[in-house]
Amino acid sequence: MALFDMPLPELRAYRPQIDEPDDFDAFWAKTLAETRAHDPAVSFEPVETGLTGLRTWDVTFAGFGGHPIKGWFSAPADAEGPLPLVVQFHGYNGGRSLPHCWGMWPLAGFAHFIMDVRGQGSGGNVGDTPDPVGSGPSHAGFMTRGIADPESYYYRRVYADAVRAVEAARSHPLADPARTVALGGSQGGGITLAVGALVPDLAAIAADVPFLCHFGRAVTLTDSNPYAEIARYLKMHRGKEETVLRTLSYFDGVSFAARGSAPALFSVALMDQVCPPSTVFAAHNAYPGEKEIEVYPFNGHEGGAMFQEAAQLRWVPKALNRAV
Fold first, then answer.
1. What integer pLDDT is reported at residue 133 of this predicted model?
2. Could you say which of 5, 249, 272, 284 is catalytic?
3. CB neighbours (10 Å) of residue 228?
4. Residue 112 catalytic?
């Protein structure tokens, strides 16, 4: 593996023109209004994990279309609340996994919620949430499901679910809505950028090697999945480029980043061929709020891994202290 994108000084200055649709904000206002029209009921069922240092609840809430979405809510065992809240989104084709996998933030004194991304959870971590919505012809994976129209595109449902996940997690009595942080890596980082724009009162966000950014460059720069799913779809569906790029323009993390306002911590790996560094810097550089970025020069998509987690554990409390 070697450096394949722009040199770091050029990346720090990279501000591409994103082909954003005129009705971007109206599209998302309509999507969230439709989603919130369904019963917002949330259930929290206590579960036994064998971990004496935390308590965990099996969560079900209504996402896009009123569809049931799963998650785990955890908090320190002896906490009385209200606690600062971390809402986390996992990587591509992962799932909410098992509750003992998410102990870091409760051990740091936070309430924590991990959302199960619908239809995923068969690679890396197991998931429990189906996606009941069908789609037209697509390439294997999730990137091209419903890609012929923004209304039917897979990530419309996922981003709407993620907004509802924040609302659901905030409804727990141990959570402090005013001290809510959204974070995630890869796909979770891209979802975090969307949530940062669509939930304007977050206290902070942290997007680690974010996916779903600068689609127009990503699909022509890397042969790695998941972006390569889109290229392979277009290889077969000749002449559909304009339609596909129009759909993706409603879901680009750069456009969401440009609407962010909470303090933000990004990370990027300069040898990352899954989420090329120029796509990450495009989002970071578009972000108008207070921001920092951790750069890992000799890493691929693993990015900073445990080092980035340590950076988040240092950065998040400081961001929350400034927010109150």
1. 95
2. 272
3. 18
4. no
Q: Which residues contact 168 (CB under 8 A, 6 or more apart)?
A: 40, 42, 59, 61, 71, 113
Identity of the residue numbered 43: S
Is residue 275 a part of any domain in this protein? yes
272 given a catalytic annotation: yes
Tally of domains in the chain: 1
56 with 150: CB under 8 angstroms?
no
- Binding-site residues for substrate, in ranges, read 92
Task: Kindly state the tokens that stand for 140.
Answer: 């294997």
Q: In whole angstroms, what is the distance from residue 22 CA to residue 249 CA?
A: 10
Whether the CB-CB separation of 129 and 27 falls below 8 Å is answered with no
- Report the binding-site residues: 92
Arithmetic mean of pLDDT, 78-98: 96
Q: Which of the following is catalytic: 74, 97, 138, 186? A: 186
Report how far Cα 78 is from the mean position of its chain's Cα atoms.
30
DSSP per residue over 70-102, as a string?
EEEEEEETT--S-EEEEEEE--TT-----GGGG
Structure tokens at 128: 């429990």
Q: Taking 90 as the threshold, does the pLDDT of residue 322 lie above it?
A: no
* Domain that includes residue 114, residue range: 23-323
Q: What is the CATH number of the domain that holds 239?
A: 3.40.50.1820
pLDDT at 323: 61
For residues 60-78, give the mean pLDDT: 97
pLDDT in tens, 166-213: 999 999 999 999 999 999 999 999 999 999 999 999 999 999 999 999
Domain membership of residue 16 (yes or no) is no
Residue 301 a catalytic site member: yes
